[in-house]
Fold:
Amino acid sequence: MNLVRYLSWILTLPLTALAISFAVSNLTPVQLALWPLVGTLEAPAFTLVLVTLVVGFFAGGLTVWLGQHANRRAARQHQARADRLQKELDAARAVKPADLP
Structure:
């Protein structure tokens, strides 16, 4: 498990440094206009790009989470069955040989 944590840091730190470098390099304000909507939005270039990346990250996470619904439900059903069978096994082990016919 420690290897996964180290690999996570090895990937996260350079990406964070890259994002900070991008933000510092792109402070120029830009205008954003969407065709059917009226009005414009003016913001630094880095905010538009980073907000787009964050929204994409959460949209991807939501898509994966929703796609795994059937697997989570099956896992809960299997766990409930395993718990029920374990209780039956414990009850069968608790029966003394003298109690048997």
Q: What stands out?
A: The chain is about 70% helix and 10% strand.
